[in-house]
TrEMBL record:
Predominant place of localization: cytoplasm
Keyword Cell division: no
Record keywords, A-Z: Cytoplasm, Disulfide bond, Oxidoreductase, Peroxidase, Redox-active center
InterPro entries: AhpC/TSA, Peroxiredoxin, Peroxiredoxin_AhpC-typ, Peroxiredoxin_C, Thioredoxin-like_sf, Thioredoxin_domain
GO CC annotation terms, alphabetical: cytosol
Full protein name: Thioredoxin peroxidase
SUPFAM superfamilies for the chain: Thioredoxin-like
Any single GO BP term: hydrogen peroxide catabolic process
Species this chain originates from: Labilibaculum antarcticum
Source organism phylogeny: Bacteria, Pseudomonadati, Bacteroidota, Bacteroidia, Marinilabiliales
Role: Thiol-specific peroxidase that catalyzes the reduction of hydrogen peroxide and organic hydroperoxides to water and alcohols, respectively. Plays a role in cell protection against oxidative stress by detoxifying peroxides.
Catalytic site positions: C51
Family, as annotated: Belongs to the peroxiredoxin family. AhpC/Prx1 subfamily.
Family annotation (PROSITE patterns): THIOREDOXIN_2
Domain of life: Bacteria
Amino acid sequence: MQTLIGKKAPSFSAGAVINGNQIVEEFSLDQYIGKKEVVFFFYPLDFTFVCPTELIAFQEKLAEFEARNVAVVGCSVDSPYSHFAWLNTEKNKGGIKGVTYPLVADLSKTISENYGVLASEYDYNEEGNAVSTGEPVAYRGLFLIDKRGTVRHSVINDLPLGRSVDEAIRMVDALQHFEENGEVCPANWNKGKEAMQATAAGVADYLSKN
C-alpha cells in the first residue's frame, strides 16, 4: 500500500448521519477545505465490541477537537440506516447514543479501499466471478487532514487494537504548532513543551537542554 502522507485526501460523496439523528445523501470532506483540519477515522462495523469504545471516546473529547477548530468524522462499511439505528441505541444496550459527529456510510467499500484500509481484497475464481478474501471491513485507520485537504498524519491498527484519542489530539497540536510557528516537534512532544528549529543548530540546542 502506498502512503497518503503529503497527498490530497481521496475525495468522496456518500451518505452519512450527522448530529446523531439526520441522514444526508451527499456528505463530503471537501466542505472543510480552507476552514478546518479533519480527523477522519475508520472503524470495522456498527454494533460490535471495540468500536463503541472508540466512537464514544472521540465524543467525550469532541469539545477539545472543536476548540482546536478540528472536525471529527467517522466511517465504516455499514449503511446510513445501520449508523442511524446504532446512534439511537442506548449505551447499556451496545449503542452509541449521544455521538454527534458525522458517521459516513461506505457501503460500497470504495472509500475504505481508496484510503488503503480495507481488510479484504478481491480476486476472481475459476468461473470468473469476483470473490472477497479476508474480512470485507475497514481496519482502524485514522487520517489527519489539513485545511488544504492534504493528509499529514495517518495510523492504521488491526481490528483488535483500539486507538488512543489523546494521541490524535497530540498530533493535531503538533501540526497546528508547526503551521503557526514553523517549529518542528520532537519525540514525545506535547502542547506547551519546547519545540525546535529544523536546523542542525536547532537540534543541538534542543538536545543540550533536554
